[in-house]
Amino acid sequence: MTTAIAPRRVTVVAPHARLDVSLPIQSTVAELLPQLVRLLATDADRAGGIGWELRRFGGPPLDGAVTVSGAGVRDGEVLYLGTVDRRATPMIFDDVVDAIASAAADRPGVWRPAASRKVGGAVAALAFTAVAVAVGLSGLAASTVALLAGTLALALLLAGGALARAFGERGLGAAVAAGGVPAAMIGGLAAIGGPGAAMELTPSRLALAGAAVTLYTALAAVVVAEQRFVAAAVAAAVGSLSALANLLTASSPASVAAVTCCVVVVAGPALPMLALRLGRLPLPGVPTDIEAFRGDERPTLGPEVVADTEAAERILTGLLSGLAVIVAGCAGILLWSGGRWAWALAGLAGVGLLLRARAYAGVGQRAALLLAGAASVLGLTARVSLAGGPGTRLFLAGLLLVTGVVCGTYAVRAAAKTPSPYWGRLLDVVEFLALVSLVPVAGAVLGIYGAARAWGG
User: Fold this and answer.
1) What are the pLDDT digits (tens) for 81-93?
2) Which residues cross the membrane (predicted)?
3) What is the residue extent of each domain of the chain?
4) Which helix (H) or strand (E) holds 297?
5) Is residue 49 within 8 Å of 41, Cβ to Cβ?
6) pLDDT (tens digit, 9 = 90+) per residue, 240-290?
7) Domain 8-83 in CATH 3.10.20.90
8) What angle do CA 19, 24, 27 make, to 5 degrees?
């Protein structure tokens, strides 16, 4: 069941005419301009410029690549159609109060109903999270806690799916379903009975909690049709496997974190291809000759490819976010439960993520890797500072000062100059060295070299 989305009813004013028209929100501004010009422009208007643009009164032209919805066009707005070479009419008001009200209403950052919806969804998710935590800390028997938390998670999953599928409220449905993730985790923690509190963190309970969150988020990604749940699913699955490995091998948390960190970082380059597969994007075949090239010409519908591309991009963002969460968690374990080799491994993983972020174009994709990398490096700095003396702390303070100056200089020059390819190549080399160093440093964390020396006598 789908809900029809109403078009935007606006008034378009041309140099010599005006028209009340309904604009479909899925259409881009560039697609609508020829129709508006045909309906409103005269021959004299067409001879007066080299192109046409649509703008709000006193505002910049609307980007032709964005949709009507993306441009923020609302019902009842007045849009102005004019030639590109014609200067915009200056804003002239005969009432200062009207001028202030118009400027305040159209400026960026004004609170709109969409912001209220987002805040309401976020507060709802936090409230459901608080309910799950209250159930976990209630002191009830573990079986009762598991039953209550599991019921809450199932109810939120069904409610989120109903909001997204039946009512077209995809964002609100995703927020409601996200509120069930903590409930699923608490239900997994309490699923194993026995002595101890329901929230006691043991390897077996952590493994089961990770499995429960993986199942829940995988179902949420399908039911709510929100690919960003992939991030939680990936992080929970890897966390569950790591806890299971710790349980079966009786190894230290630092050893498990070292192996997990290496495997996840090394497997990172395979995520874009995995996102293409999960997004069901058609992959082009490589023709063997010109005849095969001509015979493989298959028409592809543009809207379908655009929708699949957006889905694949969201999946990739989720996969990279999950990778970032895993690496940041492993770095935290290495820094606070391991030795100096574990610290080095956490720092190398952080540097690798910081440099790997350059390969991705999406803001969310880069932000996830940059935040996890920065958290790992700053955590290493804090750990070394706590373990060192005054001289070490002064050295780290100077290093951070230099880093801040370099980053500030880069921020000033980044918009004015194209980055030098030599610097890019140098960073590629540093990234390669950081990633290649992960495996031998992880071997030191696991104690492989000491065991080899002892075995060799």
Assistant:
1) 887 755 555 566 6
2) none
3) 8-83
4) none
5) no
6) 898 888 888 878 888 898 999 999 998 888 888 888 888 777 766 666 666
7) yes
8) 110
